[in-house]
Write a structure and sequence with these properties.
This protein is α/β, with parallel strands linked by helices and 430 residues long. It has 18 helices and eight strands. Strands 1, 2, 3, 4, 5, 6, 7 and 8 form an eight-stranded mixed β-sheet that branches. Helix 2 links the parallel strand 2 and strand 3. Helix 4 packs across helix 9, helix 5 crosses helix 9 and helix 6 crosses helix 7. The longest helix is centred in the C-terminal third of the chain and has 25 residues. It starts with a strand and ends with a strand.
Length: 430
């Protein structure tokens, strides 16, 4: 029995995701597909357009066999920790053979080579990055410039068959496209943890993560960003870009409308910032002392969440970085000590696996997980206290708080009753 895993947000699930699931199953000869999915808040520092249970149902209808939640601490972190937390979780399940991910590059060998070299030279690279950050470059630009500067030392011509020019072009693409960046981080995490899980990549079929056009006349594959944009303008146009089962779910749940966004949390964020202004925010994950000072100075000009991100944005701080830092403040996520060591010495804590949903036909996989997993599998929150120690319980409590906050805002946005996290059972499909 072979098992392939996919790490995803499904915000929302679309034809490209269905393609990845079907092709992964076919090309890896996997008996089962296990999905590690973000909960109610996402890596770019924003809420999901639909709650995790509805997105779990979409994933199962779209071809997944089992869906497990990625703890919120990792789901809303930068690419390095998002990938590291998810890979740590997969390693501990003890049943996964392949990790499948989409990439704009579509070249696994070059990605693996880069991941190994960058991991082995991490401290040297970090010194160069800090130098460029001090000169005012954004983190993505600083990283790319550092790699180019170190290029002769990191990529000697004898190490691969590409010319320097070809390698530099591939490197530029590797660090300028979101899915390439995530794919590289997956490979780095697998390499650093000496995982037995093998990476597998498929070239993306849509126009790219940031493309917001539906390209109605050219393709059935578009990005999740394009679909969310269409929901705010012409929701009826998205039908051809998502599986029909997903479209029916969106229709049934009144989600063919402008989606929930970070601005639905503006009042809560402003209150949090106002109450903690005197002590500052530098203890929160991704919030430097300089950003903390800038938040305090700019608070009188706060209008809403997205507006404040734009106000704080600068040459060296991207909108996404700021949005993520503000989300950490809102959710109360401070920098954990185990995030601090270099990747090769880091031991991330993912002390449980929370089951969000499964197909009945996946019972052999669930049995294998229960037999081989080194961490407890949580199906009912009521059982968690007797299964987890204090540190693990704190991590799970963050997930529960995130769900409660999300459901309250979503209920106002959709004019529905909020779900009670304590009463939710895993989604089970035939």
């Amino acid at each position: 029995m072979k098992t392939a895993a996919i790490i995803a947000e499904y915000n929302p699930f679309h034809n490209g995701h269905h393609y990845q699931l079907t092709q992964t199953r076919l090309l890896t000869n996997a008996s089962f597909i296990l999905v590690i999915m973000s909960g109610d808040f996402l890596q770019r520092g924003a809420p999901a357009f639909a709650n995790k249970y509805l997105r779990t149902r979409m994933a199962l209808l779209g071809g997944a066999d089992v869906v497990i939640e990625l703890p919120a601490l990792y789901a809303v972190s930068s690419a390095e920790y998002f990938a590291g937390g998810a890979v740590t979780l997969l390693n501990q399940l003890g049943v996964v053979d392949y990790l499948s991910f989409g990439s704009e590059l579509g070249s696994l060998s070059f990605m693996e080579e880069c991941s190994q070299i960058l991991t082995d030279h991490e401290q040297e690279l970090q010194l160069h990055i800090k130098t460029f950050l001090k000169e005012g470059y954004s983190f993505p630009d600083a990283r790319e410039r550092s790699i180019f500067q170190l290029f002769p030392a990191l990529f000697p011509s004898s190490s691969h068959s590409l010319t320097d020019e070809e390698s530099r072009r591939l490197l530029s693409g590797l660090f300028s496209s979101p899915n390439n960046i995530l794919g590289l981080e997956y490979c780095k995490a697998l390499y650093a943890s000496q995982s037995s899980i093998r990476p597998f990549t498929l070239k993306r079929k849509d126009a790219g993560y940031h493309n917001t056009s539906l390209n109605c006349d050219t393709s059935l594959y578009v990005s999740a960003s394009a679909i969310r944009s269409a929901l705010s303008q012409k929701p009826d146009t998205i039908a051809r870009y998502v599986p029909k089962e997903v479209y029916h779910l969106l229709l049934e749940n009144c989600l063919l409308k402008a989606p929930l966004t970070e601005n639905d949390f503006s009042g809560m964020l402003y209150y949090k910032l106002l109450m903690e202004k005197e002590i500052g925010f530098s203890d929160y994950l991704d919030c430097t002392p300089d950003l903390s000072d800038k938040i305090c100075l700019s608070l009188p000009s706060f209008t809403n969440y997205s507006g404040f991100c734009s106000l704080l944005k600068s040459k060296d701080l991207t909108y996404t970085r700021i949005s993520r830092a503000l989300l950490h403040i809102l959710l109360g996520i401070k920098t954990p000590g185990f995030f601090l060591p270099p990747a090769s010495f880091r031991s991330l804590s993912v002390p449980y696996a929370r089951l969000l949903g499964f197909k009945k036909s996946a019972s052999p996989l669930l049995k294998a997980i229960k037999k081989n997993s080194s961490i407890p599998i949580i199906t009912k929150l009521a059982d968690a206290p007797r299964m987890l120690n204090d540190d693990a319980s704190q991590l799970l409590n963050l997930d529960i708080r995130c769900a409660g906050l999300y459901e309250w805002a979503a209920s106002l946005h959709l004019n529905t009753s909020p779900l009670n996290e304590w009463k939710q059972s895993p989604i089970i499909l035939p």
